[in-house]
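User: Sequence for ABC transporter ATP-binding protein below. Tokens please.
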Amino acid sequence: MALAVEVRNLSKSYGRKQALDHVSFVLPPGAMLGLVGPNGAGKSTLMRMLLGLVRPTSGSIVYNGRPLWPDPTPLMPAVGGFVDTPQFYPYLSGRENLALLAEMASIPVSRVDEVLEYVHLRQDGAERVGGYSHGMRQRLGIAAALMKRPGLLILDEPQDGLDPARLKEMRQLVGAVRLEFGCTIIMSSHAIADVERLCDRIAVFDQGRVRYVGPASQLGGTPIEAIVWEARPMDRALDELQALGVNAHPIDEGRILAPLDARWDLADINAALIGRGVRIFTVMRRAESLESRLLAYLEDQHVDVR
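Assistant: Structure tokens for ABC transporter ATP-binding protein:
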């Protein structure tokens, strides 16, 4: 059963360092929340608390009306996931690692092959984990989290360090887990495009605080549409657009972007460029990405995004 999550005024300090500062949000059952923001902003601290690994200094975490603290043990069978890289015994096989978890949690051992099949590792289950690729270990981490059919799944950067092909596989796997298991998911990620695709809401972290919680589409107001030109020579195209009053800037070699302005006559702008010797290969209209809106939002909040 998917868990409803309620976090109220959650704080954690380590001496003088404030890792979390009065964080609050509410998630209905089955929701998926993406945690985004700079490194060291408090995302991992929050996930450790949600997994019952770190006790808060103050505030509360409530799952389906039941407080997690002061004793998280009764609620832990309903919560699964990992923070940082999933850890396993490298000298044991993937199947043996999961069988050990099953024994410790009194889960039927038949569950092992079920979850290995689900994350596409059944054929590699007999291999030692020490020989697994990074992506295979990430998938084994998800398999371990799914062993107890959790109502809440915590995933700390499951896409981290994956090549484009494995990144696509992980995106599909996380999306499938949400649909087929129906669990509530909280996922941190620097892959902002994946957060936009997978999550129905985001939490923007900065220096232990949550600056925004809500739909990704509403971050920073209404998403801005833009026009992208692919043109040559690029320097001349950029100069001519700016001379026409277009707030244009290069985004990569040969492409120029400008926020769409309702006052433009795009046909006249293109004709002017052509008349000044600019060759236009493509003109595309696109919505501003979550990544660009997030960077703009953090800059408006005076956050160092490095």
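The mean pLDDT is 90.
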